[in-house]
């Protein structure tokens, strides 16, 4: 179906939006030439990702292609084959491409993406023998989750295919690397399992995590690398230990498929998003449900359709841990401040599927069903010293360790995010 | 550390560039007034009744805070500088690092000073 292209840009006067905090569209990349419909490929952008150091951006643009572009995006380096519409000019710029950009042809629909830093040898000495072109400097790898269950691992600077991981029997919907750079990869699949792969051992499959009853939609490893969250179609969210690869607990509460999950930067909070129109915020250490963010209250003045479908597609934390971005089927990108019950800002976004924050803040990237990618301004945050201290402490203290500290009750409530 | 007059800017009079923060056990910490005022609490204590700007020096007595907590003043001042620098500016805000070993005590001070 053809959707009329919507006017995208700043919209003033939205309910609940603080002045200057509406996400403003910085740039949009869309395929320059619409592809012939091919039943084997589709044009959705199922995933977008920034590398942890913020130097690269990747998106699975449909038609089996993953595009890798250096970040920040410069006007003269709009990716080849794309048009860009930026906030500065109304004219669309045709892409000529940066010399560094890479196009990865994965051969099938790409569903999941994840970056990892690839630290220097000795792990890479093995590669150098078989792939002399692999650069000597510390670099990045990108894992791509494919339609038939394969996972391809690519080296980012050269676009070289390094590994093919086989094991999954169905779509690999989501991928997550350990943030520590230890090259352990977790994959989530429609075959109802998660798998753990060790890229230090040529991608050896070291564990299969079973238990989900339906498609596993997403997985996320906590920033302190201790926990793994997975969410599936049977409405449940599972928390696994990344040390023993065993199930810690099940989080019940959603009323429909849970499709997206993310940990806060200090690992103290977990958010999950579902087709039931809610985002739930949990304490991953105790399993307690802290709050629910409802996506049904849409200002009728803004929504000119009769249908209020607000299934969630994606949720992510901002890098300093004070905001959330959500993408829902009611054609809105919402920004939430953690301590409030309603969004602080909205931006119109049709057919949104995924979102992610730039790791150093300031920008949110989103992907849509028609293969477009947008970049939005994120709220500019100057964290309070209280929050900065909380974030530093929670990066290594569990909820139980906080509760055992010799501090006043109000301080414990603040530290465990019961109060803000 | 015992009330001896220091030689920088001066803590007395309306043009005082610095203020003196005094802990419960008598230690004195001298910080730039402009930065100390980013704390709502200090600002209130400096401008509240009983403070005569032209007669007395700008001093704040923290009767409940011992020196080992107020010694995080250095970290507090770094934060005050950071806040002043990036508030009402359009430049990108870098992350402010907090060392894990002082984070708990710094949190107590930040909570008391409401910053």
Automatic annotation (TrEMBL), chain A:
Keywords: Repeat, Ubl conjugation pathway, WD repeat. This is WD repeat and SOCS box-containing protein 2. GO terms for biological process: intracellular signal transduction; protein polyubiquitination. The keyword RNA-binding does not apply. The lineage of its organism: Eukaryota, Metazoa, Chordata, Craniata, Vertebrata. The gene is WSB2. Residues 1-20, 82-102 are annotated as: Disordered. It comes from the Eukaryota. Pathway: Protein modification; protein ubiquitination. The keyword Repeat applies. WD repeats lie at residues 142-164, 165-200, 209-250, 251-292, 305-339. InterPro entries: SOCS_box, SOCS_box-like_dom_sf, WD40/YVTN_repeat-like_dom_sf, WD40_PAC1, WD40_repeat_CS, WD40_repeat_dom_sf, WD40_rpt, WSB_SOCS-box_domain. It holds the Pfam family SOCS_box. It comes from Pongo abelii. Residues 384-420 form the SOCS box domain. SUPFAM superfamilies: SOCS box-like, WD40 repeat-like. May be a substrate-recognition component of a SCF-like ECS (Elongin-Cullin-SOCS-box protein) E3 ubiquitin ligase complex which mediates the ubiquitination and subsequent proteasomal degradation of target proteins.
Automatic annotation (TrEMBL), chain B:
It comes from the Eukaryota. Keywords: Nucleus, Transcription, Transcription regulation, Ubl conjugation, Ubl conjugation pathway. Residues 19-79 form the SKP1 component POZ domain. It is found in: Nucleus. Transmembrane segments: none annotated. Its main location: nucleus. One of its GO terms (biological process) is ubiquitin-dependent protein catabolic process. SUPFAM superfamilies: POZ domain (SSF54695). The keyword Transcription applies. GO terms for cellular component: cytoplasm; nucleus; ubiquitin ligase complex. Pathway: Protein modification; protein ubiquitination. Heterotrimer of an A (ELOA, ELOA2 or ELOA3P), ELOB and ELOC subunit. The elongin BC complex interacts with EPOP; leading to recruit the elongin BC complex to Polycomb group (PcG) target genes, thereby restricting excessive activity of the PRC2/EED-EZH2 complex. SIII, also known as elongin, is a general transcription elongation factor that increases the RNA polymerase II transcription elongation past template-encoded arresting sites. Subunit A is transcriptionally active and its transcription activity is strongly enhanced by binding to the dimeric complex of the SIII regulatory subunits B and C (elongin BC complex). Belongs to the SKP1 family. This is Elongin-C. It comes from Pongo abelii. The lineage of its organism: Eukaryota, Metazoa, Chordata, Craniata, Vertebrata.
